[in-house]
Amino acid sequence: xxxxxxxxxxxxxxxxxxxxGGFGLEFVSQVTIALKNFISRDPNTMxxxxxxxxxxxxxxxFMFIKRILEVNRNGKDMIDGVTVMNLIIAVLENMxxxxxxxxx
Length: 104
Known about the structure:
By secondary structure, the protein is mostly helical. It has one domain (25-102). The chain has helices spanning 5-13, 28-41, 43-46, 57-73, 79-94, 98-102. The termini are far apart.
């Protein structure tokens, strides 16, 4: 399951060179629900670095949030920005203590 996590992020957010987001930007609400499930079901893996990755899943998630907010700032409908803010709430609710334990 964790192998599709970065792919879900890319579908919605796209790459840095795409100013309008990914090809599935209209699915941010649905992808956010899936991401919240990843966070709640396995908060320990959120802190891990996946195979062939250089960042943890948590770092990728915050890059995703930042990217959606950047794309959303120029859009006419701000609902995607509000939707991804729920991911921060999910991190705070489900990873309490996990992040503190992982910090040096």
